[in-house]
Specification:
Largest sheet: none
Strand content: under 5%
Shape: elongated
Structural class: mainly alpha
Length: about 270
């Protein structure tokens, strides 16, 4: 029953996230389309891994531990398990970062090393029933189902938290609705922006040229703007208003200025 409920929740999350990411396919920007496809594939892959492969692997490993000579109780086992959890998380995270940011081959090698150290070697130890003396393994202390099912502190906290949430459904719904509404407000405050490096190779001459241009002529470059003023230019008040408008442009952060701090403005009169 528990696995079925979790599987349904994962399926709903995958469906909603997949639809959200696939909605990017309607964009006219190629990079956004690629992002939508890649994100949807990642969501489906994570569902397959977390919904099927991980539970099956965990169940098989639990059965293997029950039939082994390893003792899964005591402070030495807890330290050994904590070190393993921290090690696989740190090494896997570093491997992914290196694979994406530095060198894919080095990241792949680190992933393989992590797989061998934290998965292959422990499974071989359990399969071959190698006695580990530092974990207090002896002929009189075998792994039993009762010792394996002893709840850890983390399990107890999670169980109590889930029980508390399920026993107060309406309070949980109100809290989730409040948090979701707050996040919707912050989501509307995000300013969409695109970097040229998202569309071109960051090492290309075109991108490097834009970086140099932005570095040296940022304050004096930019695109021209047009302000259309309709009125009687023979009226001194109209000319004074135009001059005030030009002066106020200096306070706008997005308007470029000359080295002397002035806004370049060319007046062109059009016949009415």
């Amino acid at each position: 029953m528990g696995y079925s409920a979790v599987l349904i929740a994962l399926l709903m999350a995958m469906t909603s996230d997949g639809i959200a990411f696939l909605s990017n396919l309607s964009s006219n920007i190629e990079a956004v389309i690629h992002f939508g496809c890649a994100a949807a594939i990642a969501v489906i892959s994570s569902f397959l891994v977390l919904g099927f492969l991980v539970p099956l692997a965990t169940m098989n490993l639990a059965l293997m531990v029950l039939g082994s000579r390893l003792s899964v109780s005591g402070w030495r086992w807890n330290i050994f398990r904590s070190v393993g959890i921290a090690g696989v998380a740190i090494l896997s995270g570093i491997s992914v970062v290196i694979m994406l940011a530095l060198d894919p081959s080095i990241g792949l090698i680190l992933l393989v090393v992590s797989f061998i150290i934290f998965i292959v070697i422990p499974v071989c130890v359990i399969k071959l029933k190698v006695p580990l003396t530092f974990m207090n393994v002896g002929h009189s202390r075998f792994t039993t189902e009762s010792s394996f099912k002893n709840k850890s502190i983390e399990t107890t906290i999670v169980v109590n938290l889930v029980s508390l949430v399920t026993s107060r459904v309406w309070i949980s719904i109100l809290v989730v609705a409040f948090v979701t509404s707050s996040m919707v407000y912050f989501a509307t405050q995000l300013e969409p922006s695109f970097d040229v490096k998202d569309f071109f190779d960051s090492d290309s001459e075109f991108v490097e040229g834009l970086d140099k241009l932005d570095e040296h002529v940022r304050n004096s470059g930019g695109e021209p703007g047009i302000a259309y003023v309709s009125g009687d230019l023979t009226d001194p008040n109209a000319l004074s208003a135009i001059s005030d408008f030009v002066e106020r442009l200096r306070t706008v952060d997005y308007v470029a200025q000359s080295p002397s701090g002035e806004v370049t403005f060319g007046l062109n009169a059009l016949p009415c």
